[in-house]
Amino acid sequence: xxxxxxxxxxxxxxxxxxxxxxxxxxxxxxxxxxxxxxxxxxxxxxxxxxxxxxxxxxxxxxxxxxxxxxxxxxxxxxxxxxxxxxxxxxxxxxxxxxxxxxxxxxxxxxxxxxxxxxxxxxxxxxxxxxxxxxxxxxxxxxxxxxxxxxxxxxxxxxxxxxxxxxxxxxxxxxxxxxxxxxxxxxxxxxxxxxxxxxxxxxxxxxxxxxxxxxxxxxxxxxxxxxxxxxxxxxxxxxxxxxxxxxxxxxxxxxxxxxxxxxxxxxxxxxxxxxxxxxxxxxxxxxxxxxxxxxxxxxxxxxxxxxxxxxxxxxxxxxxxxxxxxxxxxxxxxxxxxxxxxxxxxxxxxxxxxxxxxxxxxxxxxxxxxxxxxxxxxxxxxxxxxxxxxxxxxxxxxxxxxxxxxxxxxxxxxxxxxxxxxxxxxxxxxxxxxxxxxxxxxxxxxxxxxxxxxxxxxxxxxxxxxxxxxxxxxxxxxxxxxxxxxxxxxxxxxxxxxxxxxxxxxxxxxxxxxxxxxxxxxxxxxxxxxxxx
Length: 532
Ligand SMILES: [Zn+2]
Ligand SMILES: [Zn+2]
Fold this sequence. Notes:
- By secondary structure, this protein is mainly alpha-helical.
- It contains 19 helices and 8 strands.
- The strands form 2 sheets. Strands 5-4-3-6-8-7 form a 6-stranded mixed β-sheet, sandwiched between helices. A two-stranded antiparallel sheet has the order 1-2.
- β1 (58-59) and β2 form a beta hairpin.
- α9 packs across α12 (348-362).
- The chain is globular and about 75 Å long.
């Protein structure tokens, strides 16, 4: 008797669950736990909270049920509102959409299409292009698989009518050093200029002058196998998956910025959603990127000066995007990543992701709480307006966080490194420009190493000659050019020689410059260090 009842109950729950699953797809537990507790009518029979007529098709949060049409309107409005609020994309701007093939960036692409097809006063007024960075070479895809993936994406891109660029990550090896130098921003445009630009745009082209179809690279540029191998070596030279992730992100961003510059785009749209950014925020903190948080996760990121990265999807949760893509047939393409087939403890990035997503299941406001925190950080550390490239990290191009306060984690690490490594005092002369350990300098055993020109040339990257401590100076040489976090990444690499030429050449240039500055420092009236 009891038993039968129980069976019946289980069966009911099963049917109930199926209904819920049908209507809300991958709905996380919290919603139907709610329903079960209250044992009331399933939310599938609820009305839409917006129009209060149609029955609900989507449950975003407990209590927020939308019908199909209202959900679409809500979703589209959110995109335009995000762009309208920030006023960074000007009418007529050429905007490059970075599409990875994932659901978030594909959804972004569909929002741009949607926005351009709206009627006059709601219409988006910029000129989009698409870029896809093919990372197949470093995530273990065969040449055939890469060709297939690219073909799949090209079909999606071609259907939009926007110009698109398929760029193999291998092209990062051919980048110029200027990529890692902050370019002067082309005329700061005040907020008041926005309205003028709108009027100007409306006057000049009343129709739609979109779809410049002139560049349409229909086939994947041929990638020399040697380049793929070099790139693989570079990634593998990082000993931890955490560092590999970080390197890949850096290289990808350099290539995106370079593509934007060469193709004449001034803004790059990234598809980071709110869930992704919450994970990124916590990851960044764990990786020692506290000083760069605002730029790493904010709506706009102007570290490159002339090219501004924007994140218009930052208000959408991964769940909302999944619903939208499902309901409105937005195609995305599965692309393997460095994480594919790894355990959740394989890297800091991966661990943070599983932490946030698991917490989110039981505490649905996890992501939004973290995300709101990121918004508050914006004003705390704005971008400094220094033009001097030597103040910028060689890899992430953020303002160096290493020369500042004594209480930073960089200083703490430096101190502990000194304490543990006093036998390897491989300091370069240029290190003295920074608030470096006084004790260590004096404790250099002058004859312990094959005196490389009295330490004069140690600053040069190429002069890591077969010294007795060949690895040590090589690594520390880049140290003064990197932010704390990138320094940690490089420390995880077996050799910096695996880095692409454009980075090494720029490193040499900066080393030469700072050496020269040091040499003439006593003749300068206003020393950079004394000044501020
Ligand atoms: Zn409705
Ligand atoms: Zn950095």
